Amino acid sequence: MDNAKLQKFNTLKQEIISEIKPTEYEQIKLEEVTRKLIDHIYNVIKKRDLKDISVQLVGSAARNTWLSGTHDLDIFIVFPENTSREELEAIGLEIARDVTKIADKYEERFAEHPYINLQVENFGVDLVPCFGVSDSSKIKSSVDRTPFHNEYVKSNIAGLFDDVRLLKQFMRGIGVYGSELKTKGFSGYLTELLVIYYGSFENVLYNAANWKPGIKLRLGNEEISTILIQEKKPLLFVDPIDPERNVASAVSLDKLCEFIDAARDFLESPSKQFFFSKKGNEHNKEYLIDRMERRSTGFIVIIFDRPDEVDDVVYPQLYKMERSVTEMLEMFDFKVMKSFSWSEDVGLGNKSVVFFELITSRLPNVKKHFGPPVWLRDHAQKFKEKYSDDKNSFNFYIEDGKYVCDVLRQHVNAKSLLEDRLKTCSLGKHINESINQNFDLLENDEVLKIKNPEFRLLLSKSL
Which co-factor is required (predicted)? Predict the structure, then answer.
């Protein structure tokens, strides 16, 4: 960067930091809510005369890398290493359920084992039981690593808190932040490790601008596990507390490339717009209709009730459905240009959507049906006998040495095809149940009946 661009870059950094760094009030409030919850848990532990159970705040709130406005707390209830899984799950849930007495609302969820999500004074709180193993190589469940992640980051992040915040906000702004299956992007822990590895926000971007799929990163000099190398992920970052784990395993090829592309663009022309999602056109119905009409393609949406499951259960089934429906559409000659899946967040709505843009949603009544070469006498004769006098075939002829006839299509309209055959697609257990209950199909500008801003933003980006 030349001096003028560097000065603009540094000024921009300070401006962004002032917007994303938690205020003193937010910090005090976080500490108050954290103390309230931890004290309550310890009181429950004492009241039940439970031994050797501790409570620990983990995650970005504990590591001072959280962003203003993201009021999330991860509180782990740490059980002795020799506790059975059955005891951990049963007693962990009992303790967490007692905490719900001071919650505004709560929901029991299940990942590797049960946990509870609470809303307390505008804070989203996960109460998670884990085993307090003595060494990270002895973990008994995947969440047991988290306290070790916590200590590693806290020991290595000094002076880099704002750099992590900048990188997180940058990734949020360009849509690659979040390792859940809905996003397939960068986790908070991975952003922290990237800043530790490269030393600053800008150094992450400078280096990312030259990344290629298959890049391998590690903190330390140990050889990278053959198992990790054989996974051939787009990005490999060895977990410093578990050498057999790739912290970046969730990052898809597209999200990696979106980050590389944005890093290059930002370094070329630093701008605030990279840090905050673009708003505006997704709310403008006329703009969306104009874009759809100018494309002159066909749009169709399958909309149905969201299964009552967490995102990491719902989204794999949505992606499975998206692939299966794409295959069916193309089998009947409806070429898919683009597709995406989306679901309203739990508690904020109850609809799931799979969107398709087709080259066309209506086809001619007939299509060419090719038979065998004429010289393959037996096969050719059977084809000729079947189609030459068939009332649903037209104009039996020879082309490039093969018998050909023009036959009536089974389906000339993508919507009628989906109405008829959607339930034959591979949908996944929970989505299959929902589809069998009810589903709707929206075609072309009917798609805009869905007014959710998040869906509209995805639609706007696809146009």
Answer: Mg(2+)
